[in-house]
Design goal:
Blueprint (H helix, E strand, L loop, with lengths): L3 H21 L7 H23 L7 H26 L6 H23 L3
Length: 119
């Protein structure tokens, strides 16, 4: 396990990538597709952050882990709804479908950790 300085550096780098991603959305064209992708940026970042956080659910005490799993479920549903609203009648891009599936997979993995542990 990395020490705290390594963890902060890793988080800083990760956060920097998402800031760059969000800033790049400004360059998207001002057509319907570009506006949909711009509107999707917060949900994309939210889903990715939930998927990443769920990978560390095993580090939490059981009560916190269960609360985190419940919050993640609510967040995934909310962000998925936001993506569907942003793109309207269009099918979601396969990358977005994969991102949603990754987040749900994180929930399943966290639940499996919880089922295997009895802290």
């Amino acid at each position: 396990m990395p020490d705290r300085d390594d963890a902060r550096l890793t988080w800083t780098v990760l956060l920097g990538r998402w800031v760059e991603f969000a800033q790049s959305a400004v360059a998207l064209p001002d057509d319907a597709d570009g506006r949909a992708w711009k509107a999707a940026v917060p949900a994309i970042i939210g889903l990715q952050s939930l998927a990443m956080a769920l990978q560390h659910a095993g580090e939490l005490d059981r009560d916190e882990r269960l609360l985190g799993i419940d919050r993640a479920r609510v967040g995934i549903e909310r962000y998925t709804d936001e993506l569907r609203r942003a793109f309207g009648d269009q099918s979601l891009h396969p990358m977005l479908d994969e991102l949603i599936l990754d987040a749900w997979s994180g929930v399943k993995q966290a639940q499996a950790i919880d089922a295997a542990r009895t802290d």
